[in-house]
Amino acid sequence: xxxxxxxxxxxxxxxxxxxxxxxxxxxxxxxxxxxxxxxxxxxxxxxxxxxxxxxxxxxxxxxxxxxxxxxxxxxxxxxxxxxxxxxxxxxxxxxxxxxxxxxxxxxxxxxxxxxxxxxxxxxxxxxxxxxxxxxxxxxxxxxxxxxxxxxxxxxxxxxxxxxxxxxxxxxxxxxxxxxxxxxxxxxxxxxxxxxxxxxxxxxxxxxxxxxxxxxxxxxxxxxxxxxxxxxxxxxxxxxxxxxxxxxxxxxxxxxxxxxxxxxxxxxxxxxxxxxxxxxxxxxxxxxxxxxxxxxxxxxxxxxxxxxxxxxxxxxxxxxxxxxxxxxxxxxxxxxxxxxxxxxxxxxxxxxxxxxxxxxxxxxxxxxxxxxxxxxxxxxxxxxxxxxxxxxxxxx
Length: 395
Known about the structure:
Keywords: Isomerase, Isoprene biosynthesis, Magnesium, Manganese, Metal-binding, NADP, Oxidoreductase
Cofactor: Mg(2+); Mn(2+)
Family: Belongs to the DXR family.
Largest sheet: 7 strands, parallel
Pfam families: DXP_redisom_C, DXP_reductoisom, DXPR_C
Radius of gyration: 20 Å
EC number: 1.1.1.267
CATH class of the largest domain: Mainly Alpha
CATH architecture of the largest domain: Orthogonal Bundle
């Protein structure tokens, strides 16, 4: 008899969290939402609690948790409301929890994701920053505590599906030549370079294929999103930078590929819908229904591929530089990018200033090795402070 798998969703009100709940709703005999977490979206969290009746709801923002607790009581829902980062760590590591969907956007998701790994959970990783900022520390923790790590990013999930079943992290013994990481190119792939200076947040967030949150949409427009994925792929698949090739594929039908030494290239295809990789990871090793419509190859008709232009996408080049440098530099890159994107969305600086800020911060902060999570978080604070100082001087 199968038992219902208890799932904590870190970031349930975001796009990944909503898609995860959609898959859970399709399989009530398999999955139960044990805990839902969010930053401050009380209205959406209340709606989710009403429908899924989780045991816990955690709001990172304490004021929002008080509002939610009052609304939960009024609605006579039995969900217990908690608040703060410690509560996020708690619901990610409780013994009752089988699986943790790590989908909090930004550095705020690192600590609860670490807590899940330390508790030996099945970690479905959608939070980029955990691997970007603390790749070696986190992967060592996963191995040490016998946790299981499955990637949720459509590209990394596609690579995972295209690897041999016996893959143990050694590209050579697996006969792998290199990894091909696909990218849509975002909304400005063909825009004149001199037009990028006046890009608005609304334009940057209008992704041609995917329905995503604001931050990740801007990252896609700059291709920093792909740069962060290159760093993630390095840690997930133990691939050196020169074995990870980014390919622009505007249709977003092929989600990534693995090239083998015999000339074969294995790809994973599908409609651009995050429920596919989510359902793959939630059901693994079985296949379960996701709600995504079947890919119509006749409607697709043709597939295009382009080499990325580093002049158009300097953020991608900066990410490769950070990976090759190693140490604290990926964490510096990530922190500076978060502040840059936030400032752009607030219309405090131009779209083209995003890589300028990041480059300045990377050149200003000295290289050092990262040995502990505290080292990573200290670097994050330092890079954010330097980013704010650069922005203040700009204005």
